Amino acid sequence: MNDLLKKLRTDEGLTQAQMAEELDISRPSYSEIERGKKELTRPQIAKISKLFDVSFAEIIEDGLEERGGLEEVEITADGVEFDPEKLRQVILYVLELCGGKPNMGETVLYKILYFIDFDAFELFGEPVTGMTYRNLQHGPVPKHSQFREAVDQMKEDGVLVKISQQYHGYRQKRYVALDNHDGDAFSKDVADLIEKEVARLSDMNASKIESYVHEDAPWAESSYGEAIDYKLVFSRSAQFAQRDYREALEQTALGDTLEALGDMPDEEREYYDNL
Q: Does residue 47 share a domain with residue 101?
């Protein structure tokens, strides 16, 4: 939690004295918090959450991860591994497509990344980035260490900047891409999927996309704080499913029937083929 706090403060250009004033404590007391010598109180966490537009749950989660209180999950389904370079390219492509929209804050970006990965897993058998997503109050949230490491490297490389601004009375964190994605980073199928997700989701504000994702089975069937298992996409309702499973089952059943029937007159086989 102390590392997250220091990062939030420095990203906003605040001094320790200014943070101490925001929390109504002395600067030495604040310094001890940032060095991990003193714990934040719940009222202080609430103030930080409001000041930096970070959910209460995310701050708590970060602190638990530092102390080993949350399982460090890198693989959430057989063969699924995190690919930081793919995450970098997905972020650049999404921002290239819709980064200029006024609603495109960090919350909306999180949810678009979630749908890209989980829909890709359902369609292709593997996600695009393999990032771990946790079940938190406002929907799936990328694992902080994975997302922050990629973003920090992008900022260091000069291809991304993070800004904070007022949006409808709230502080909004958003990212601005300074470079385009690598056109060879994805297959055409994956590029088409990313474009489709952006087209259907990027006009939603944070509240609307949170309500929407709460109805998706992977989030709904996970417990609070848990890493969301990619395999839960196969429990989706028709609203979210990327495949027509009923048609697939019917085709499989028809194929099994034809195989079982074996040789038959051409006219009869044509009848079954046209069912």
A: no
Residue 199: how many other CB atoms lie within 10 Å = 11
Domain that holds residue 29: 2-66
Buried-exposed string 29-47: b where 16+ CB fall within 10 A, e elsewhere: ebeebbeeeeebeeebbeb
Judge if 261 and 192 occupy the same domain. Answer: no
Burial pattern 94-130, b for ≥16 Cβ within 10 A else e, equals: bbebbbeeebbbbbbbbbbbbbbbbbbbbeeebbbbb
Establish if 75 belongs to a structural domain: no
User: 216 and 182 in one domain?
Assistant: yes
Residues 80-137: pLDDT tens digits? 899 999 999 999 999 999 999 999 999 999 999 999 999 999 999 999 999 999 898 7
Residue 78 resides in a domain: no
Q: pTM of the predicted model, to two decimals?
A: 0.72
Query: What is residue 227's DSSP assignment?
Result: B
